[in-house]
Design a protein that fits this description.
This protein is of the alpha+beta class. It has four domains: 177 residues, Biosynthetic peptidoglycan transglycosylase-like (Penicillin binding protein transpeptidase fold, Orthogonal Bundle); 96 residues, Beta Barrel (OB fold (Dihydrolipoamide Acetyltransferase, E2P)); 262 residues, Beta-lactamase (3-Layer(aba) Sandwich); 44 residues, no CATH class. Strands 6, 7, 8, 9, 10 and 11 form a six-stranded antiparallel beta sheet that branches. A five-stranded mixed beta sheet has the order 2-1-5-16-17, with helices on one face. Strands 13-12-20-19-18 form a five-stranded antiparallel beta sheet, with helices on both faces. It contains 23 helices and 22 strands. The radius of gyration is 36 Å and the shape is elongated.
Length: 765
């Protein structure tokens, strides 16, 4: 009787097993033929973003829906492989797609704990899911997942499957694949990862948002410690390595800029170029674009521009908080919410005022840190603490301000500048752009002032007028009268014009060299009047300027037309390289994701006579004159660099609206500009030499470090003779350069003796 009762459940279980096997077989017969082909996996072509690099290999921009770097399995370090297997699938190299040991272990654990606490997806199953299936959690999907895993294992080797997984898996922060994640979270390559970092990344696939170290550092830390313990248990780390890795405090990248150097304007320029060339594939085919930018030069330009604009802003006083918010509760979450609409601007961080008194201000800034600022840190914003200050300008609870650390690491209140600026530099020999900063902050203002801003060049345009004059027979020693001028409306294209020198002073007769060095407006006007405005308008086209942007009126002498910084870069390059118009360029080469060369720049080169814009002798004389602008003229502050091979010209427009400095050394041309987007006065005294020149000198001090001094060789046909104050040859005069055919006559005996002002004026142009 007892045997009969025992046989019944056994038969029942056996019947159920047969039924289950039959159903399983039926499902298999129905489902297996419908499984997608896995052949595409053997020719893996993921969406790879457009990446843009400096000439020396530093990433400066990435564009695409997915941030991904594809790597070959043989280049993945064993440390990372072991971390991934310890976290996700320790029996990966033993099972055939489905880990039955893992399945039974997970089932037992779930049964004991009373809930679905563990899963049993292998790496192969995850590959199947990521490539072919949805993320819905149903029994049917799990069946398909397992069947696909078997098919994948039958088609690919274990290393091929692991390579797909390492490149495809999503790891948070828009990062797909471990190579991209290593760069995004740590700024490192896979080969540079430490055990602690590898464990942190290996812990992400289970739940990328939950274990994201940027968003959830505590949970990420817990997951990392679990992976480290598993690595130790599996023999991948010894006790000492485990202890060291557990103690490491990881430096997670949190800044808005994920790149090695700020070159956002460059990256956007290149993105637009590549989109025009490859509109259908630009963001998915993994194009790598190498620019001509140098990291060292770009960093110098970025820092110099921002410092100069902040210095200008401080000279003109504190404007008050950026805004105000109502604080209804005192929690970090509430404070973070209040700051959510205010983005960081590199080192200038938004701060929320929690309390403000006459001697100290307590602030909160993103990340949970509360700081108290007093003493020197309040000097700039002191007017905001004055009770007499208008309420909408006062520092009080709920005010949003900017804070930054000074050179000593102490916090201070500052502000974002309203003024804008730009800087660009290039080699005059081949046009390769070395640095380009289109504004103070790309995140705040994407308008590229280097290429898009048409501004009056002011006195920076005078060298092109002087160069035209040299072609007309003028010399650096030609005497011109620095005296007031009243110009007929017909000659200005407007009304009666009574121009003035910058300082309002007139010094009478002087040589062209001195007139340029001191940026005398009256000299330039009289020179242009002599050579003719139509001739000058046609002449400046040699430097790449648009004639229609420079109407043929006498106002051209003071740079009243319009030009971009890019045009000024090209124009001054002509003087720097001996007379050749070389086009600046930004892209050196383009390669695909496999490194195949798609395009290579063919730069123009100085020395190619088909590119000659002006006579070599003309370029030499202009170079000589512009060196004096730096030696003793309006750009004398550049002497602080301690070099004798610098040349250039300041530019200040009417009413101090635009400030420029355009200068060069034989190997590098640099153009700096400062002004407001909606043109308005910068302020009295804010000249090119005061406001823009510091950008240029700050850049050149670093860019020209360890660059030997060099001077332009004297071209054939240029001679040096001594001339007197009247510009005539005299053995007692000062040396001056001339084209041989424009040598002045020798001074007579009468001219060698002191002369009256009227006698001097009789020889003026």
């Amino acid at each position: 009787m007892s045997l009969r009762w025992l046989a019944f459940p056994i038969l029942l279980l056996a019947s159920l097993a047969v039924i289950a096997l039959a159903i399983g077989g039926f499902v298999l017969l129905l489902a297996y033929p419908k499984l997608p082909s896995v052949e595409s996996l053997s020719d893996y072509r993921p969406k790879i973003p457009l990446r843009i690099y400096t000439a020396d290999g530093f990433l400066i921009g990435e564009f695409g829906e997915e941030r991904r770097s594809v790597v070959r399995i043989e280049t993945v370090p064993a440390l990372l492989k072991n971390a991934i297997l310890a976290a996700e699938d320790e029996r990966f190299y033993q099972h055939s797609g489905v880990d039955y040991v893992g399945v039974f272990r997970a089932a037992y654990s779930n049964l004991v704990t009373g809930g679905k606490r563990q899963g049993a997806s292998t790496i192969t199953m995850q590959v199947a899911r990521n490539f072919f299936l949805s993320s819905e959690k149903t029994m049917i999907r799990k069946v398909y997942e397992a069947l696909l895993a078997f098919r994948i294992e039958a088609s690919l080797s274990k290393d091929q499957i692991l390579e797909l997984y390492i490149n495809q898996i999503y790891l948070g922060q828009r990062a797909y694949g471990f190579a991209a994640a290593a760069q995004i979270y740590f700024g490192k390559t896979l080969q540079q990862l430490s055990p602690a970092e590898a464990a942190m990344l290996a812990g992400l696939p289970k739940a990328p948002s939950l274990y994201n170290p940027v968003v959830n550092p505590k949970r990420a830390r817990q997951r990392q410690l679990y992976v480290l313990r598993r690595m130790s248990e599996l023999g991948h780390l010894d006790a000492a390595q485990l202890e060291d890795a557990q103690k490491v405090s990881l430096m997670i990248k949190r800044e808005r800029n994920d790149y090695a150097v700020h070159a956002e304007y460059v990256a956007e320029m290149v993105r637009q170029m590549i989109f025009e060339r490859y509109p259908d594939d630009v963001y998915t085919k993994g194009f790598r674009v190498y620019t001509t930018i140098l990291k060292k030069d770009q960093e110098a330009a970025y820092q110099s521009l921002r410092k100069a604009l902040l210095d200008y802003d401080r000279r003109h006083g504190y404007r008050g908080p950026e805004g105000y918010v109502e604080l209804t509760e005192d929690t970090d979450e509430a404070y973070d919410e209040a700051l959510s609409d205010y983005a960081d601007s590199d080192e200038l961080l938004p701060g929320l005022v929690l309390a403000a008194g006459p001697r100290q201000v307590k602030l909160f800034h993103r990340g949970g840190e509360t700081v108290t600022i007093a003493g020197d840190g309040l000097k700039f914003a002191a007017r905001g603490l004055d009770e007499k200050t208008a309420p909408n300008k006062r520092l009080r609870r709920g005010a949003i301000v900017r804070i930054m650390k000074d050179d000593k690491g102490a916090w201070q209140i500052t502000q974002l500048p309203e003024v804008e600026g730009g800087f660009v530099s290039a080699s005059p020999q081949d046009g390769a752009v070395k640095a380009l900063v289109g504004g103070f902050d790309f995140g705040r203002n994407k308008f590229n002032h280097v290429t898009q801003a048409w501004r009056q060049p002011g006195s920076g345009f005078k060298p092109f007028i002087y160069s035209a004059a040299l072609e007309k027979g003028f010399t650096p020693a030609t005497i011109v009268n620095d005296a007031p001028v009243v110009v007929d409306p017909f000659l200005t294209g407007g009304q009666v014009w009574e121009p003035k020198n910058y300082d309002g002073k007139y010094e009478g007769p002087m040589g062209l060299r001195t007139g340029l060095a001191r940026s005398k407006n009256m000299i330039s006007i009289r020179v242009l009047q002599s050579i003719g405005t139509q001739y000058a308008q046609d002449y400046v086209k040699r430097f790449g300027f648009d004639a229609d942007k420079h109407p043929p009126y006498l106002t051209m002498a003071l740079g009243a037309g319009s030009a971009t910084m890019w045009q000024m870069l090209r124009g001054y390059g002509v003087f720097a390289n001996g007379g050749y118009k070389v086009e600046p360029y930004l892209v050196s080469r383009i390669v695909d994701d496999r490194g195949t060369l798609l395009a290579q720049a063919q730069p123009q080169m100085a020395g190619d006579e088909t590119l000659r814009a002006i006579d070599a002798r003309n370029a030499f004389l202009m170079d000589s004159m512009m060196r004096d602008v730096v030696r003793y003229g309006t750009a004398a502050r550049a002497n602080a660099l301690g070099r004798q091979d610098l040349a250039g010209k300041t530019g200040t427009t009417n009413d101090f609206v635009d400030a420029w400095f355009n200068g060069y050394q034989a190997t590098l041309v640099g153009i700096a500009w400062v002004g407001f987007d909606q043109p308005r006065k910068l302020g009295n005294g804010e000249t090119g030499g005061v406001t823009a020149l510091p950008i240029w000198t700050g850049f050149m001090s670093k860019a020209l470090k360890n660059v030997a001094e060099s001077t332009m060789p004297v071209p054939e046909g240029v001679v040096s003779v001594k001339v007197n104050e009247a510009g005539r040859q005299s053995p007692d005069g000062k040396p001056e350069y001339f084209m041989r055919e424009t040598l002045p006559p020798e001074a007579s005996a009468a001219e060698s003796s002191p002369r009256t002002p009227d006698e001097v004026k009789s020889q003026l142009f």
